[in-house]
């Protein structure tokens, strides 16, 4: 896939020959691949390159914050996907990754809403809760409730 052009005013062309201009595709309702920079930015090569560097830097900062928040309490994955969305405003590879991710999340949500899968998940969750409650009951019957600050040596 040709994602860009060296000449101002030339359009990028997808592998199927369709123009990549950022407009919506009538058949799927998805936006076309390519830069969403304003036209006056895309018309000037150095300005467009500077724009891309800025978008990449901002997206990278957001993704790094998301990665830092993964082990910490916070919405790490949401922030990582927000960084990917920032990159997707300018880079075709990020647009493709975001489309693939949206498709997989939608498929997973549809699977989770399937009545058979929901019934199975509810059954497994109930069995798990009964096992955990049984374990807690056995522990309390053997050792009782002893607060950590009242342990006698």
The low-confidence parts are: 1-6, 8-12
- Strand arrangement within the widest β-sheet reads 1-2
Helix segment count? 5
Order of helices and strands: EEHHHHH
Question: Please, what is the average pLDDT?
Answer: 78
Count of β-strands: 2
Rounded to the nearest angstrom, the radius of gyration is 26 Å
- Tell me the helix content: 55-70%
Largest β-sheet summary: 2 strands, antiparallel
Structural category is mainly alpha
Instruction: Report, as a whole number of angstroms, the end-to-end distance.
Output: 72 Å
The dominant shape is elongated
> In what range is the share of β-strand residues?
under 5%
Describe this structure in words.
With 153 residues, this protein is mainly α. Helix content is 60%, strand content 3%. The protein contains 5 helices and 2 strands. The chain has helices spanning 39-42, 45-69, 76-88, 92-112, 115-143; strands at 12-13, 19-20. Strands 1-2 form a two-stranded antiparallel ribbon. Strand 1 and strand 2 form a beta hairpin. The termini are far apart.
Summarize the structure.
With 153 residues, the chain is mostly helical.
What order do the helices and strands come in, and which of them pair?
Blueprint: E1 12-13, E2 19-20, H1 39-42, H2 45-69, H3 76-88, H4 92-112, H5 115-143
Antiparallel strand pairs: 1-2
